[in-house]
Amino acid sequence: MTGLYLTVWLAAGLAAFIFGYLTVEPGVLPPLADLGQSWLGIAVGAGYAYFGIKQ
Domain locations in the chain? Predict the structure, then answer.
């Protein structure tokens, strides 16, 4: 179940990031771009925590 949750979270977040920043004209869907940017920050933070990386 955890693997399914992570897979869906990664797919949805990556899709929001790609469609919000790379394929949609700037300013057309700001909430989607904001969601993608927030997801990227959370994903990076989760990666740092998971792998125990210290700054």
Answer: 2-51
